[in-house]
Every structure is written in structure tokens, then in C-alpha cells.
Amino acid sequence: MQSQSSRWLGHGLYLLIMAVLISGVYVSGQRINYTWHWERLWPYIVNTAPQDIIADTDGTVVVDQQGKLSITPDYGGDPQVVTDYTTLVAFDGDLIFQGDTLARLEGWRFGPIAEGLWVTIKISFISLIFSIILGLIFGLMRISHRQVLRNLAVTYVEVIRGTPLLVQIFIVYFFIGTVFDLDRFTAGVAALSIFTGAYVAEIVRAGIQAVPTGQMEAARSLGMNYVQAMCYVVMPQAIKRTLPPLAGQFINLIKDSSLVSVISITDLTKAGREVVSGSFAPFEVWFTVAALYLVVTGALSWAIQILEQRLSASD
Question: For this UniProt entry, which segments traverse the membrane (predicted)?
């Protein structure tokens, strides 16, 4: 076992290496004459500036006794009604034109980076659920006694693993999405689920085959049928063996979700590109985006480690 002094020495060396790396990034920025502007980034994460409420059409402003503001359009149509505001800019009877400011709303709201992070988490979580379902189905088909099921599973796994995810996203969105009238988000989830499901299927197959065959035979000798033996004896053991590779695959899923930005889904990566063009702070934005991906993947890795420890403790 490591002594206390050697552990502290290891921690000290780690901190020294991290300090050198951070210093290297800073010096590199100075050498290319880059000025850091971290303060520009905050409004794109949480925006506390007042929000202008803009007129959608030309018309006349009407403010009733309850303070509700509306615009009576000059050329007919439904009026624009504004009920949630802090400060009025236009008043009763004013003539207003499309694009003019009607009122301002104080408070805070999530910026595009925070909204992109939420889209990334949502699309990754939904894809993770469906990829587990697909992986279990095709993993069991890979070890089935029926040749047709094995052939179908092998075809699915080899085709998906043998083609790039970016190409699959384009095929799902432009072909399958057009046939079934899928929106961008659904097409992105479908592509990520199908892609990750192929890798999960191989992990499940390997985990089941790693369980000694005597376990199945012993369960069948106790009177269990095949499904009962698989659910109560084989699969619990296989899950413990597959958790580490599954964790790595799910982390890859979160990182691979950045590719859905090519079909105009405003995830964290696409939000980062948009913020770079508006903030002129590319290094700050991409370091922040990388840190947010690291937080999400680190949280998933930590959760799976906790699950793995609990499963090992139940032996």
C-alpha cells in the first residue's frame, strides 16, 4: 500500500503538472497576441440584461386599465398582446411600427450556451435510453439459436459500425426523416440511438458470453425456462461485466451528440459556434464548451461508478 507521504507527493506532482499546462495555455495566448475577455461570455450563459419586447406589426398601441398592452394592426389581423413586462416604452394611443420597442422585461434568463447544454443533455439522455433498448434486443438476437435472428443482428451491427455517424445522421434526416416526416430533434435522436445501439449490442453479447455456460445449465436444471434463467441468473452477472465498457460508450454518445448540429439542432456545439460569431471570444467560448461537456460526461461516469460499486457490494 502507498504511504501517506507518497500520496501527498503524488498530489503535489499532479498540481504542478496542471499548473504547467494552464500556464502553457496562457503563455500561448500571449504569444499570439490574444486578449482574454471572459466577461463577454457570462451573458451568453445567464443573461441578466433587460429584454426588449418588439412590435410584430404596424398599428396603434392600446393600454387598458389592468395594464395589458396590445397593438391594433393597421391592416387587420389578430392584435399583438403583451401582458408580462416591467417597463413600458410605448404608451396608449402611440403609433407603432414593426420592429419598434414596446416594453422591457427585467430579470434573468438562460443564454444560448445554457440552452444548448440543455438540448445536448436532453438528446443524449433520450438517445441513451433507446440505444440500451436496441442494444439489448440485438445483443440477445446475436446469441439466439434462430439463424435468421443472428443474421439480422450481424447485419445491423456491421452496417452501423462500418459507416460514419455523420453519414448516418444525413441519411436518417434527409431520407428516413422525409419519408416519415420527422423533425430535426427526432431524427437526431434516431441516428444517435441506432449508432450507439450497435455498439451496445456487441457489449451485451460479449457480457452474456462471458458468463460461464454452467450458470445457464444450473438454472435450467432448477426448473427455470430460458427466459427466467436469462433474466434472473445470466443477465445480472452480465450487467456487472458490461458496466465499464457501457460507461465508455455512453460517454462517447454524449460527445458524438455534437454532430447533430449539422442538421441545425442548436445543441451545445452549435450554440458555441453562434456565440463565437457574436462575442469575438473564440478561445473563451470553446474552453467553456469543452468544460461543460466534461462536466456532463464526468457526472455520467461518476454515476456509473457508484452503480458498479453497489452491484459489486451485493455479491
Answer: 12-29, 117-141, 153-176, 285-304
3-class state of residue 28 by DSSP: helix
Which helix (H) or strand (E) element contains residue 53? strand 51-54
- Which residue, chain included where needed, has cell 458524438? 256
- What is the DSSP secondary-structure string of 228-259? HHIIIIIHHHHHHHHHHHHHHHHHHHHHHGGG
**Identity of the amino acid at 85:** Y
* 42 within some domain: no
Range of the domain at 78: 49-107
**133 and 238 fall within a common domain:** yes
**Phi–psi pair at 203, nearest 5 degrees:** -65, -40
3-state secondary structure of 226: helix
- What pLDDT is stored for residue 315 in this prediction? 56
d(CA 251, CA 21): 24
Res. 62 pLDDT band, cuts 50 70 90 = confident
* Contact of 67 with 47, CB cutoff 8 Å: no
The answer to whether position 40 is within a domain reads no
Helix (H) or strand (E) holding 123: helix 112-142
Q: Say whether both 274 and 150 belong to one domain.
A: yes
